[in-house]
From TrEMBL:
Similarity section: Belongs to the glycosyl hydrolase 28 family.
Gene3D superfamilies to which the protein is assigned, alphabetical: Single-stranded right-handed beta-helix, Pectin lyase-like (2.160.20.10)
An individual GO BP term: pectin catabolic process
Reactions mediated catalytically: (1,4-alpha-D-galacturonosyl)n+m + H2O = (1,4-alpha-D-galacturonosyl)n + (1,4-alpha-D-galacturonosyl)m
Subcellular localization, as worded in the UniProt entry: Secreted
Keywords: Cell wall biogenesis/degradation, Disulfide bond, Glycoprotein, Glycosidase, Hydrolase, Repeat, Secreted, Signal
Listed GO CC annotations: extracellular region
The keyword Cell wall biogenesis/degradation is assigned to this record: yes
Protein name as annotated: endo-polygalacturonase
GO molecular function terms noted in the UniProt entry: polygalacturonase activity
Pfam families referenced in this protein's UniProt entry, alphabetically: Glyco_hydro_28
Originating organism: Phyllotreta striolata
Enzyme superclass (EC): hydrolase
Keyword rRNA processing appears in the UniProt entry: no
Amino acid sequence: MSLKILCLLFSVTFAKAAGQTGCTITEYKQVDDVLKRCTNITISNLTMPGGIQLKLDLQKGSTLTFEGTTVFEVAHWEGHLVEVTGEGVLVQGAPGSILNAQGEKYWDGQGGNGGLTKPKFFKIGTTGGSVFRHIYLLNCAHFCVGITASDVHVHHFTIDVVAGNLRGGLNTDGFGVSNSHNVLIEDSVVMNQDDCVVVNRGTNMVFRNLQCYGTHGLSFSVGDSHKDAVNGVTKNITFEDCHVADGLYGIHFKTKRGTGLVTDVTYKNIKLSGIQEDGIYINQDYGDIGNTSRSLQIANLSINNVYGSMNGALARPVHVVCNENACSNWNWSGISIEGTGKNYCNFSPNGFNC
Ligand SMILES: *[C@@H]1O[C@H](CO)[C@@H](O)[C@H](O)[C@H]1NC(C)=O
Ligand SMILES: *[C@@H]1O[C@H](CO)[C@@H](O)[C@H](O)[C@H]1NC(C)=O
Ligand SMILES: *[C@@H]1O[C@H](CO)[C@@H](O)[C@H](O)[C@H]1NC(C)=O
Ligand SMILES: *[C@@H]1O[C@H](CO)[C@@H](O)[C@H](O)[C@H]1NC(C)=O
Ligand SMILES: *[C@@H]1O[C@H](CO)[C@@H](O)[C@H](O)[C@H]1NC(C)=O
Ligand SMILES: *[C@@H]1O[C@H](CO)[C@@H](O)[C@H](O)[C@H]1NC(C)=O
């Protein structure tokens, strides 16, 4: 190879990696062109027009950085406002950056069940060792982060819907994970009005060092509310070293209609403070209280070292409602949740005296 060609190759490679020009997006109309040309992209102080998705289908191995404020103008549609796809990508927020969904302009106390149509916020649909880090999401109108991905690492997120507490925020789920495999979410903060994390379906997930404020807890929501369907197997899910404060539940299993299995689930080192309803709530009759004929199974559920406090005289540390023959092989240890509400269990985990 001649030196000239080598130099050319080098400069092309170099330009592709770092010195790309025109790879900053400040207006929506630039998105398509920049995504086509660039693998190192900055989105800077972008205002997205309402009703249009910021669709970021990134080239393999790309880096995308949000800087300044990305704001999404109001429109009554389902979202997601942002959707990221690609393989082996890095998506990050620069220091001080914020993505603002302007939820305060939608909240009406009805969440996803009525009233105004509210867009879901941030969808992760990546594969192949992608990383999302240092992202600050402000005022989700509806669900905050939706993940349907494989091999993804999410860390240092702040999900800040604290303003929704007094202004009718509802169904502002923090991280919702469905049909995903090999997911690690850690070192993040969620302040909202629904689940901190909710696992719907998938395998091999770890949720670690999460701080949840005002939430509905570290949850599973499995099956279908309306019909009997085969839900498949959700397996090998761990929550560890988390703090859940001030919300309705600490740990919550919601199983609905249909068949399927949730197994090999571990919760360990979970601190609760000021929880208002149930510290640990296994709720196999979710959405149809008293119907214990549903068959979705919860097996191999290990809970250890869950401690802390409840808030209110009726707040119940432990509440277990299992369906007939639908719970098995639960080993619990080190459950010490202070509260005056009376525990209820219709199934007895090994190692725990209800
Ligand atoms: C992307 O561009 C930024 C700013 O120009 C630079 O600091 C960074 O190193 C680049 N990243 C990659 C992976 O090339
Ligand atoms: C974004 O806008 C703010 C306010 O106008 C400005 O202070 C800041 O420098 C901008 N950030 C970038 C990265 O251009
Ligand atoms: C469970 O998931 C973790 C995290 O993804 C993984 O490291 C581990 O190998 C999985 N265990 C099994 C038995 O698949
Ligand atoms: C209870 O759940 C079963 C299984 O999903 C369903 O077939 C049945 O209709 C439900 N019963 C009532 C009273 O809703
Ligand atoms: C529960 O403990 C029993 C007895 O020690 C053990 O055989 C079983 O594998 C444990 N199950 C889980 C899910 O850890
Ligand atoms: C529960 O765990 C044991 C090993 O501890 C395993 O043999 C069994 O298959 C698991 N049960 C289910 C339903 O996954």
